[in-house]
Amino acid sequence: MEKLVFVALLFCVLLSASYACFTSNQTHFTRMRIGSQFYQECKCDDPGKEGVKLTWLDPHDQEILPLRPGIESNVYSEWVDEDTYRLFISSLGKSISGAYKCVTVHNGQTFALTYNVEAYDRPYFINTNETQYIVNGKNVTIFCKARSETDPLIIWYKQDGLTKIRDGDKYETSSQGLIIKGVTNDDKGLYRCAASDLKTGEEIIRDIQVEVISVPKITEIVASPDSNVVAGGVLEIVCMATGSPHPEYVWRKIPKYPQPIGNYTFPAQYAHWKQEGNRVTIYDVNENDAGAYECTATNVAGSSSGSINIDVYFMPEITKADRVVAIEGSTVQIVCRSQGLPIPQMSINYLGEEVDERSIVWDVKNISNIEVEFYLTFLRVNRTHDGFYVCNATNFLATDQREINLAVLYPPHFDEAFEEAWGWSGRSTNLSCDNHSSPPANITWNYQGNDLTKEEQTKINNIMADKIHDNPLIIENVSLYGTYQCIANNGFGEDKKMIILRQGFVPAAINNVTLTNITATSVTFSINVPESLIGPPIKAYKAEYDEAENYNITDIHINRTWSIDRPFRIDRLKPSTVYYIKFAAVNDVGDGPWSEVYDFDTLENTNFRSVPLEPVWEADVEEVAAMERKLKWKQEELVDSYNIRLCPMNNGIIEDTMCTDKTIEPAAEFQLEEVDSNTTYYLELIAHNSNGSSTPAHIMFTIPAEEEKLLSAGALIGISIVVVFLCLVLLDVVLLLWRKQGIIAHCCNNKKKIKREVSLNSRSLNENINGKKEDKFLLETGKAFLETTQNPTTHKSGRAMDTENMNTTRRPAL
């Protein structure tokens, strides 16, 4: 224990006797970038009795002094506090690199803290552009070179420095940069080149935007309107090429004129050529402009060329298309010749129904390099081939057409060899001998009477002598019933037709009528054709009917006529009523005899709802339809809907395919919306309810062309009233200003005079009586007014103004 105490005391004595700041040498190494700031603190931990003794020395062992006023220094020292002395270098450079020492002295011995400061250059890029171009389809290097204290390490990244590029099939690094193999458009984008100094650890980065360029490639050379141009027209040739950056274009015509087109001086024949970029325009094209045109597209990546051949063509023209005449059954040929360049395509089409192609042969023959003939051969021509044919000559420029008439000669032919005709007294009969023939046939008539004597036949022959070649044959003497023969002959043959002219009679009486449906207000019949009918066919039926109680009282009854294609129905009958009715058939000869009288009873109307009656049009419905485009009819209570059928008419014939059908709710009118002007329409209206449909009501109308609409009558009356009123007001204002008379003046004066006269007493009123007549009138008026206002309820004249009723009493307007 005593020994330990002694050693401790000895250590304390020795320690208290030491007064050096530090008693050992130390060396430190620092590398810093040129231009960096450097500072280092040197601290005295144990100044001792003599105090702090620290000194900074530069690499040449020269003392570094603190800054003094007016003296600038890059290297200087400064005291931070009493025991800390600092070295400061504001901008480090290679010339001042070296060992900087902080020294102190102890017992004659110098101790130093050495700081070896080395300045180095930061790495930097050389020949590395921020935008570089690579050629599509080739192996290309993206250049990136850097310099530093040592050979820098180059690392490549793509996509904003997130993806590191490694050597492989696509990329390969070299001392010059990054090699991209088989460049595509996907290789464009942002690349990052990072250069690192392995000695200093410094790294620099350069972002390189890579654009993929491509050698121009001619994709298409287009001539507008076409590479085959008509002489005299305008031709545009456009050269379209790909390439990045966009290429420039040079044109030339080969092989005759190799010099480029555009910004060069041309001979006179090129004065109508003009180049604008990739487009060449040739005005007023002539035959010398035919040939090949070459376009060369060039950019920094390279160039490519393409050509187009231009032909100057002309439109087709038919030079031969003669009419052809042939006899039925023979072989005939239609020839059509045309010229054009390119050689036209030929065809011959029939203007009519299709013909039998089995007997037709087509053939084409080139006459020269611009002329061609087309042959249409009929191996056995017939009358169906007769007509007009259209010869077409077509190339890509246009089409020329010419009609060719093929006249096929053939003997007459009747569609029917036998015909029955009817005649009757008071009517001329026309007998037709219409036939098919080419050329038109001559007509000859023969008459063959029944049981005629020789004298009668001779008389008839004399009558027909003037009509022997007529068509139609008009028989004015109806007694000439019998058989007529028509003979048609045209030199190639003849045909005959027999026409029996019979005497026609009115239809026989109707003896078979069936009641098919009966309601409270209508009845429907079924009528059978009379069994014995000698004459024209029945075209209508008529009926005469009346109530039973009236039938024998008067001979005037209701008549109704139906065409044979309509339902035989009668509407608007009385319920629970007995009717008598009789029928007759009608043909062209006249009305047949009446049938026997039939009777029928209509049903009661209590528990029965009948079918609707036939709609009844309003008066002047045709005029309303034409002017207002509206149809009106009388509304019935038993109708739940109306069916409307609207059909346009062509030359009096209904066009069924163009008809439109509509169903509307119960109404009394129908708007004609989808109708054309100057067109005749047929409209059919049928009323319908749960029991059935009415008989159709029909109408025909024509919509006139729309005219410029004028003002309506109401508008004209309104305008006239306004004009008259304005004239009266203007006249009253003139009277007011000129003579202070008129309605306005009277109203103004009345107000003033009434106010003035109300305040007058009876004395003042009497003093003014001997004035003018107007003053006397005003006096009397004022008195009456005073009496009225003083005692409105007891006025002798009975004209008291009741203030309660004044606002409710009105006089009739004049």
Describe the protein's architecture and organization:
With 814 residues, the chain is mostly beta strands. It has eight domains: 103 residues, Immunoglobulin-like (Sandwich), CATH 2.60.40.10; 90 residues, Immunoglobulins (Immunoglobulin-like, Sandwich); 89 residues, Immunoglobulins (Immunoglobulin-like, Sandwich), CATH 2.60.40.10; 89 residues, Immunoglobulins (Immunoglobulin-like, Sandwich), CATH 2.60.40; 90 residues, Sandwich (Immunoglobulin-like); 89 residues, Immunoglobulins (Immunoglobulin-like, Sandwich); 83 residues, Immunoglobulin-like (Sandwich), CATH 2.60.40; 56 residues, no CATH class. Helix content is 13%, strand content 43%. Strands 9, 12, 13, 16, 17, 19, 22 and 23 form an eight-stranded mixed beta sheet that branches. Strands 18, 20, 21, 24, 25, 27, 29 and 30 form an eight-stranded mixed beta sheet that branches. Strand 38 and strand 39 form a beta hairpin. Helix 6 crosses helix 8. The longest helix has 27 residues.
Looking at this structure, what is the CATH superfamily of the largest domain?
Immunoglobulins
Strand runs, count:
54
Q: Which band does the percent of strand residues land in? A: 35-45%
Class from helix and strand fractions: mainly beta
CATH architectural grouping of the largest domain:
Sandwich
**CATH top level class name of the largest domain:** Mainly Beta
Main sheet, how many strands, which sense, barrel?
8 strands, mixed
Termini gap:
153 Å
Number of helices: 8
CATH topology (fold) name of the largest domain: Immunoglobulin-like
Poorly predicted runs are 1-18, 262-269, 754-814
| Broad shape | elongated
Tell me roughly what share of residues is in helical segments.
10-25%
Domain unit count: 8
Average pLDDT level = 79
**Radius of gyration, rounded?**
63 Å
